[in-house]
Amino acid sequence: MTGQLNFPALWPYWPELLSGLWVTVQLTVLATTGGVALGIAGAALRSGRPSWMSRLWGIYVELIRNTPFVVQLFFIVFGLPALGLKLTAGEAALLAMLINLGAYSTEIIRAGIQVTPKGQWEAGRVLGLTRSQTFLRVVLPPALQRIYPALVSQCIIVMLGSSVVSQVSYEELTFAANLIQSRTFLSFEVYLVTTLIYLALSIAMRHLLLAIGRKWFGVQPS
Predict the structure, then answer these.
(1) Which of 57, 107, 155, 215 has the fewest CB atoms within 10 Å, i.e. the most exposed one?
(2) Mean pLDDT, rounded, of the chain
(3) Residue-range domain boundaries for the chain
(4) Which fold has domain 12-217?
(5) Comparing C-alpha atoms, which of 139, 109, 107 is closest to residue 125?
(6) How far is it, in rounded angstroms, from Cα 140 to Cα 147?
């Protein structure tokens, strides 16, 4: 080694790291909640009778799933202003993450719905429930139970992808790490600490979401 590691030199910069972590957590909570809700709506739409709306949603899903997240983010930040729609860095980051997770969660949830026995729909009609009530009360809960681990993994992937929004100067965890590195030149120390923070955040998020799944949907521990 050509030099000694100097982790103590990072101590004065912990407020910046914690501030960036808090921004990442807020962004993740909002994007996860909105993205999953969007996915449920999209899965319901795409699982119903074919219509122009379901086809349009299918185009959205394929567009998002087959383009890089960073390109989607740059389009929102730099492309939409050309149409007169200007967003702050935070609004653009949240919108990009929400749209991205919405597309992926649509297909994940739809996969769970497709393997639901048709008898579930028929049972709902026999009980006098509307199609919406049957979907929300009879079909959706077991569908979410089947695909919940995959949905949790996708939410974590979106959280980790939030590091990309530092490219548009949004002050989340990676932005804070880059700023500290530019001041201290302690690249190894800064990015090792940042890596460990992301690792801890991913593990905590997985345990929290799986605990929610066990309580609300009866998801069995793996």
Answers:
(1) 215
(2) 90
(3) 12-217
(4) MetI-like fold (1.10.3720)
(5) 139
(6) 11
